[in-house]
Amino acid sequence: MRLAGLLFALALPAIAAEVPLSERRSGYDLMRPETRAMQDDDAANPAMLWVMEGATLWNAKPDAGSRACADCHGDARVSMRGVTARYPAFDAAAGHPIDVEQRINLCRTTQQHAPGFAFESRQLLAISAYVARQSRGVPIEANGDPRSQPFLAAGREQFQRRRGQLDLACSQCHDDNWGRHLGGAVIPQALPTGYPIYRLEWQALGSLQRRLRGCISGVRSEPYDYGAQELVNLELYLMWRARGMMVESPAVRP
Amino acid sequence: MASALINVPSSARRGEIIQIKALISHVMETGYRRTSLGAVIARDILRLFVCSYNGQEVFRAQIHPAIAANPYFAFNTIATESGTLVFTWTGDNGFSATESVAIKVE
Hints:
heterodimer, A: mainly alpha, Cytochrome Bc1 Complex, Chain D, domain 2, 2 domains, two-stranded antiparallel ribbon, 11 helices, 41% helix, globular, B: mainly beta, Immunoglobulin-like, 3-stranded antiparallel beta sheet
């Protein structure tokens, strides 16, 4: 009977408490001083290469007859300020929340009549980094749209659900064991304050979806495809966790 | 596509020590990695970085496979006179990139 009770306790799903608001720390605070210095200096932050390319793309027409981003949105430093801080946002036409990368591609296909960029392509990362750069220092907004709430709840549920051969939930590392080590790396709190990030391990810029897919395959689970609603729901939930924190994009991470 | 971020003070006093920072976009493929099928990925790295100030070489670095992607160099020189700093990176597969930045010395 006692054994049965113990087995029952072990079989309970992971019910982790979210990190209290007062104890939240950006991944920046958990980095070594050398890595922080890379992020702090735009001349040393390799992500600025993508931002520079994004600025060029912002002003370029996809082809002669179409409009450039700048032709509708003007100066990105003004029009794009705060955009990354409030995405993923609900898209009424799609009927679900979409992230910044999807928003950019939607603009390309519907407004610029050009094919969308592939996920993780250099161009999509460049434009999203350029857009994200304009929100640096802006506090992340909690998505208060009632239509987004079911998707936010789904994202939270995915975060807390055990998955994969390692049978681990995101929350078991990022809520229960943040600050401790997984191999040589410090476990952060899963607060996406700086995406797209230049990750030293990747030696390149990458999106939050790439990071999520890396974590999911890390627990030996099959990652969702790029653009899958499950990934956007997770992004939505993670941005909600980081509500009120400052955007650092494009950040550097180890 | 080559692109570089260069940071040089736009003006300096004569005799002042100035810091120069140069970051270039490059994959720095080591030549030691293999594809999932076992084929070696050919080496593609930068081999040399040179900075000259009004034609005089002030900094030179040989670059090897252990250097990470998008190499970044920061170094100091003395502001002697107004002119141009020329940065040159050369590497495998005929890679060559040159950037120049003006500096005003008073």
